[in-house]
UniProtKB/TrEMBL annotation:
GO terms for molecular function: glutamine-fructose-6-phosphate transaminase (isomerizing) activity. The keyword Cytoplasm applies. Keywords: Aminotransferase, Cytoplasm, Glutamine amidotransferase, Repeat, Transferase. Homodimer. It comes from Microbacterium koreense. This is Glutamine--fructose-6-phosphate aminotransferase [isomerizing]. Residues 41-180, 214-359 form the SIS domain. Its EC number is 2.6.1.16. Catalyzes the first step in hexosamine metabolism, converting fructose-6P into glucosamine-6P using glutamine as a nitrogen source. It comes from the Bacteria.
Amino acid sequence: DKGGWSSFMAKEVSEEPEAVANTIRGRVRDGQVVVPELDGMDALFADISRIIVIACGTAAYAGAVGKYALEQWTRIPVDVELAHEFRYRDPVIGPDTLVVSISQSGETMDTLMAVKYARERGARTLSICNTQGATIPRESDAIVYTHAGPEVAVASTKAFVAQITALYLLALHVARVRGTVSSAEGEQHVRELEAVPEKISQILDREQARIEEFAGWMADTRSVLFLGRHVGYPIALEGALKLKEISYIHAEGFAAGELKHGPIALIEPGQPVFVIVPSPRESALIHSKVVSNIQEIRARGARVIAIAEEGDAAVLPFADEVLRIPLAGPLMEPLLAVVPLHIFAMGLATAKGLDVDQPRNLAKSVTVE
Ligand code: F6R
């Protein structure tokens, strides 16, 4: 039931705040993250020396965002790999390896086969999944469910923000067990994560209509580029994937630092480029580097659509559009910056008269390898 929305995707984007809030619920005790499903597994988390995150598509981009938090908070090295690449390259894994799979459906065959392979090789397996009782969690040693609610539209939206949330909860849980984050810091991160749903709601309230309007003007666009750096990089990839999936427009995401190593050759007058601008409060250095990327592409005629936090005036002289996201704590920006990109992809596909829920050639759950 679309509950009055024009599509399941529109409904599911509107549910992004609850997807985050419901995933956090019940997993915070006295200001610290305690995931009840991971009770009794402290020894497991104390023993591991590596984490490998495996997933496909949007879930893999959630994993790529989660890597920053997992490494920063747990100090355990993390690799993120596409599930279908992982098992065909004789990976170095064993009992000290925790393989974290991420899947909305819990039925993706590529991911399932990778989990089985990891188990056969002696690794520990933990599944982040949105579907109760699905195959992947049943094949895993531990489960952390995302509580995004059923996702019907083929393109994943609310599950993505729930997956990042679950990874942050996992990171804080493991960090507490290993003592790598103090309780004061842990409490601070929890507060910042708990503030995210309200901030997503603000973006939906303030920017959705405007984004849909300019997506409408761009219905004839043939190519859109997305740039991001640090945690903004996987968000750029997610923005590009969503656009190609539902609007059939060529779209590519790049690490902003790669521009001068090749992609800048693509910039010609009128080329739309979304740039996810990191918070200047988090790192003035990274922020200034991305602002100079914007200047470089603007000088070559790009049409720049910046996603920047409120009050960041440095982007104003160089951006054609600025989409604002509220100020948030460190590492929380991806949960906000992705929202305008989901709205944009949906707005553009709608403007082209396409069925946003059922894009051509795609299935919600990919149960073949
Ligand atoms: C993108 C999308 C796909 C899925 C991927 C993994 O919008 O929906 O890229 O994210 O097929 O699916 P799950 O999470 O069910 O394993």
